[in-house]
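Late entry, written up from scratch paper. The run itself happened at the end of the previous shift, but nothing got recorded in the book at the time, so transcribing now.
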Amino acid sequence: MRQSILFLALFCSIQINGQEELLRALDSGNGDLIGQMFGEQVEISIFDQEQSLPKANAIAMTKNFFNAHQIDRFSKMHEVASKDKRSLCLIGKLVSRDRQFKIFINYQKSGEEIHIHEMRIEKEE
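Output as recorded:
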């Protein structure tokens, strides 16, 4: 019994890393979850339609993209971090049933939280 309680306490204390959550959201094409990681203002570009948007508008634009393109998988191609490891740039590939997209995400980490301040999605030829 005591071991079960200890295991449960350890299990409940494990938190999902914000970066793992971002990768999982990209892999499943979950626009809602990605949007929750946006900062208050986001530079967003989808197919050369570049805009600086407040969080709510950026979430709507992201959800529209993911609703229109059912993502089968995401593969991380490259990641670069600043010297202090707080600012990161993630480059990857989103694969849908009919085409592939390249995605660039710039974000900052605050503890385990992620704050996306720029996202760009391009069609791959």
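Strands lie at 38-46, 49-54, 71-81, 87-96, 100-110, 113-123.
(Scratch paper discarded after transcription.)
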